[in-house]
Structure prediction request, 395 residues.
Amino acid sequence: MEKSAENSRVLEGKVIPIKLGIVGVINRTQAQMDAKISIEECLEREAEYFKTHFNYMSTEMGTPYLTQRLCSVLMQHVKQCLPELIIRITEQKVIQQSILDSLGPRIEDESGALADLVMKFCREFRYNMDGRRSVQFGASERALSGGRHLFEVFDSAICQELDKISLPADIEEDIKHEIISAGGSKPALFTPNIVFDNLASRQLEHFTFPIKKSIKKCSETITEIISILSKKIFERFPVLKRETHQISLGLLLTKTQVVERFIDSYIQCELCYINTNHRLFIKNRPQLEKACSEDEKSKEEGGENSSTKKIKALLDLYIHIIRNQLMDVVPKTVICYMVLQFCDDLHKDLMKILYSSDRVDDLMKEDMLVEERREKALRMLDALERADAITSLLE
Prediction:
């Protein structure tokens, strides 16, 4: 570019108006690079050229000045964007830190960490059963304690199932058959007690299936609580989660079998002794017999029908008494063995089996995705910390 009035006007921005002005530079040519002319010498030639041809504006021309101007423009832009940039950096730091907190720190003491996790799992289960913690069950929108869920099972599975049990429609035919059978080779003057005992025993046997069904439902509810808690607490450690889950379910199965054996024994005791001397039975029997007698007089029924009606009413009363007892006994048995004893033995069994396997390193091995996420979050947090330090210098 030769010195001329027109070239001066171009550099001054009068020909082509530019908002930030025009800065003339002389680029290093291929010939200069081939001739091994250094960058420093090229810059000196550039400065000399502008002093010679455009002396009055030489201080605002050349590569060094362009560099200075660009840095100045960049800094002004950065300062304009700085408040928003600081907010975004702070927000990202909070996000990355929360990710690190959720993933937890790297495990240094694996044996101690295992003991802490097992203790936390057992504590959370106990708190869940006594109402101090809540869990989200399935598609339910409500978060309830495990104990409350178990209570709902008592109410729906146990009480409702037992309430469905009643005397069959053909019970009067069974009563008549028993009366005839008890008479032997000649008609009986009075209805023997064996008739009532046999009929009551057969009706009591109907309680076994719904009780077993309700116990299974309780076991399924506790299993679901175990699954939810193990997934939450041992999320980082898939092997430990699997082992803990299996040990817990094995212990629960043992306690469930204890409950089933206890209930079987309880029902067997009821079958072995039909207690017609039960306080509630004695209290309500006269009233029932009186009602049956008045009904007989109004219908003028015979002796056999009279006995049938009375026995049916007494059977219904006796079944009602036993049903109420079972509604009380079954939940208490479940709580005793499947909750309280399970809680007491859970920590002991987990520690005994997990530590005896000599696999602490394997149990405490983190999921690869967890480790990758932690490393990524650490790198991001480090970059954000450095960005934060830089922005503090610019304020």
Q: What stands out?
A: The two ends are 42 Å apart (CA to CA). The beta strands are 135-136, 143-144.
